[in-house]
Amino acid sequence: MPRRQRRRRRLPGSYAGTPRTKLPFPINIILNQKFFYTFFIVLMIASMGAVGLGNFSGSNNPGAPIVDSDVTPAPTVANLLSWPEGPAPVIDATKPYTATIETNMGDIIIELATDAPSAVNSFAFLAGNGFYNDTAFFYVDRDYFAQAGDPNCSTGGDSFCSGTGSPDYALPLETGGLSHVQWSVVAPAVGAGDEVHGSQFRILFADDARLDGTETVFGRIVDPGSREILSSLQNFALCSQVDSDECVEGQDFSSTIVIEKVTVRPA
């Protein structure tokens, strides 16, 4: 029995033997999936390349800090008196430096030690940022030492001078080869650990070998004129620090030496 041939169903409006109509440009391109994906990938790669080149050509990499021979770092805008992260490097630790402390009684010149680079760098960093400007020697004992470096002991400030102020960091103890002899410049110890003060310093009026190895000796005063200025000082103590009949009430620094500016330069 012969098979019955199936009749192909025609869609409404179509005619047998009529060729399929091509879609017009650009619809035929848009509906071509292969072309669309290829075009999209090329476009993304080109965009990423343009952004990368733009960032590279417009970048400004500051690089490593450059040590300036004048040691004059720019002031910190946020808080001039506080650097919890510690001092930035501003000196060449292999070279000798001198510090000139300009005071209301004349200049005091310090020869800074090369075997105490952390203390010398901190002193130079703070000096370059104006940390010591208009601060007083808040304690003077003619038989022992004169001490300065508290930022709160300022002649023009409203802060309370207690003799405990700091730049909010301490330094590692550096014993080096220097001893506590007369006219030494010393960073005092902090507590009983292996750290010394970040900003405060003492100038010794007498030898004290008992403190060798416990504090950082980072300089010495050899200039005769500087020694004469220091020798002319009178005893001075803040009431907040020493309770005695000779204590100076309030923040009257007229009888002590006041630092106007400190400058550190290569020797």
Give your account of this protein's structure:
With 267 residues, the chain is of the alpha+beta class. It folds into two domains: 27-52; 97-266, Cyclophilin-like (Cyclophilin, Beta Barrel). The chain has helices spanning 27-30, 33-58, 117-128, 224-231, and strands at residues 97-103, 106-112, 135-136, 139-140, 145-148, 170-172, 184-187, 195-197, 201-204, 216-220, 236-237, 258-266.
> Which class of the largest domain in CATH terms?
Mainly Beta
CATH architecture of the largest domain: Beta Barrel
Task: Briefly note the structural class of the backbone.
Answer: alpha+beta
Portion in helices: 10-25%
Map the helices and strands.
Elements (H helix, E strand, L loop, with lengths): L26 H4 L2 H26 L38 E7 L2 E7 L4 H12 L6 E2 L2 E2 L4 E4 L21 E3 L11 E4 L7 E3 L3 E4 L11 E5 L3 H8 L4 E2 L20 E9 L1
Antiparallel strand pairs: 1-2, 1-12, 2-10, 3-12, 4-5, 4-11, 5-9, 6-8, 7-9, 7-10
